[in-house]
């Protein structure tokens, strides 16, 4: 029987810490505020925004949501971001991506001031993740993985962490975060030879390749800590992750569930960045 | 008998390519120019600057060397960098580090325009290395390692590369460069458990930990490609690298010598960045 690394208690503990900090900030007259800018039909974003709004409210953080029409011009989007960037009452800015193809996403991301860049949309935030310095903010998903590992007191120093997936939103930043905690980190991907063998060498194995149940029996050995970043809806309507939970769970020492694992923590991480941004603003 | 991955032919081929490009640029009225700013006694830098100056001349690149006194104020150093940054005749800027402790190195590095940042002193250059985009320039030493591997046609895609050393000037950027070429990359360091075993799993093993002959017999298996980034002067006056060449060479398929390996290539890489900066300036 493996330990189930459920995300709910991690997110809940994080929200408690946020709430305390929010109260401190409000006592100093600072009302932590996150602005979310979206362009076009909200569609898929709607459920996300509802969840974000609910959690923000529970933490005492104000959410300001701005939606531009799908055919908004580049200059209109730039103006909206500049206004949010210049507004001292806004502490964090989240630009929902992907944007409509008519817009230059890179140019828009550059308009987010790094000190308000709570989800790592800017080059300076990326440089901070890579160089282990406090520049901007790291992306929420890999930060959520680190919160789970810390909450369940998984030892990292000296251990072998293998990450499958090298994206700039999960794999690469997570590699830098695990490295900072003194793990020995291996990055695998679609071109990796002998993937199963390398996965079995891991003490901590992170599946972040974005394919349903891509890591199966041959990737696991007894005693591993398994972290699943993926989430997919199967034809029968059920949800699964990037690893085969049924094959993994009997062997693993500990494993994150899907749903209820990493995805549960990311919103709380994002809100914690808003609080840090608001605190930094006072200093 | 292993193949000796000598740096000289790599540097020489690189300089040939630079020379051709320099001639093209001069035909268009552009005289590629590198400015080197140093503060304080040149001491250790002197030999480096002499080598740089000689190679720049051989490539047709103008070198402008500016030295500030050891007690130069922050504002004096900032002024010097701003002048170089604003001068359209200067294409690349190299700020020799470490600087005297009285100066704020981070603040000074930020004054280098990323498009002139030929040795990765700025956050934008770091973000470019991390995100695999053309922002600024990568650091010269890991880029030199990649030039050697490319010159000797070492296969990288799918292979296991193990880097020992996680510095921001070598280990981490090299990990990102090898990843871009589809290698499976592991970053090891002082806290890594079972270092020897992990090193033996490497197809390409890079020693970049900065300790003389730190990787010895137990780290090697037959058929590996070994790259040594270190260089140290021993008590008897001889030079050695971070790996034990005598133990490694009989087993390795290919190995870089010290001296005459990676260190031989870095200056040519730096000069190639000056040319790229001058070319980008025309576009």
Structural write-up:
Two copies of one chain form a homodimer. Chain A is of the alpha/beta class and 283 residues long. Chain A has two domains: 28-119, Rossmann fold (3-Layer(aba) Sandwich), CATH 3.40.50; 140-263, NAD(P)-binding Rossmann-like Domain (Rossmann fold), CATH 3.40.50. The first copy, chain A, has helices spanning 7-27, 45-59, 74-86, 105-109, 123-131, 140-151, 171-180, 195-200, 245-248, 263-282; strands spanning 3-4, 33-39, 62-68, 92-95, 160-164, 184-188, 204-207, 225-228, 232-233, 239-240, 254-255. Strand 6 (184-188) of chain A pairs antiparallel with strand 6 of chain B.
Tell me the CATH architecture of the largest domain in chain A.
Answer: 3-Layer(aba) Sandwich
Largest sheet, spatial ordering of strands of chain A: 1-11-8-7-5-6
| Largest interface by Cβ-Cβ < 8 Å | A-B, 32 and 33 residues
Topology of chain A as a string of helices (H) and strands (E): EHEHEHEHHHEHEHEEEEHEH
In terms of DSSP E residues, the strand content of chain A is: 15-25%
Low-confidence stretches of chain A: none
CATH class call of the largest domain in chain A: Alpha Beta
Mean pLDDT score of chain A, rounded?
96
Number of helices of chain A: 10
What's the gyration radius of chain A in Å?
Answer: 19 Å
Coarse shape of chain A:
globular
Number of strands of chain A: 11
Quote the CATH topology of the largest domain in chain A. Answer: Rossmann fold
Structural class of chain A: alpha/beta
**Largest sheet descriptor of chain A:** 6 strands, parallel
